[in-house]
Amino acid sequence: MASITAIGSRFRAQIRRAGFRSCAKTFDTRHQAVEWADKVESAINSASATTPTGRRAIAELLFAPEDMTEAQIVEDSVPVGGCVGVYALIKANRIIYIGMSRSIMTRIAKHWANRLDFDAYRIFECQNAEHAAAIERRLLAKFRPRLNLSVPENAAVSKTYQQEANTAFS
User: Are 33 and 10 in contact (CB under 8 A)?
Assistant: First the structure.
């Protein structure tokens, strides 16, 4: 089932389904988000009945790349930088690092350029720095990744840790 979340004056539709990589898209109106989510879920339901299991991108169900128009490709594009949130770097099916940034893709690219050895990543888009700090803190406490040197002991926010979180977004 899709979830529709208000983010500022826009609406984000996110769909998660077992056997498929998650998919999300942001719209100007709630109605547009619901329409898109209905279309995607319909495609998932049709594919689930006819295809073997295995993680597939949801967008692959909607359009073959060669059948897409330029407008569809542009509409489904993701802006470079600008995504505030938390990310997890993964190596051999284990979370090795969790971080936060106001420009996640740029930050992940820096990890890659610095030759940090990871083979996958997961992004958790957040509404603001405080939300990102809270998500990061909970994930760090839960998973304790081996490359994170400073991990808070509990879910309470220390003043120092909150200052570090605010610095990451300034």
Answer: no
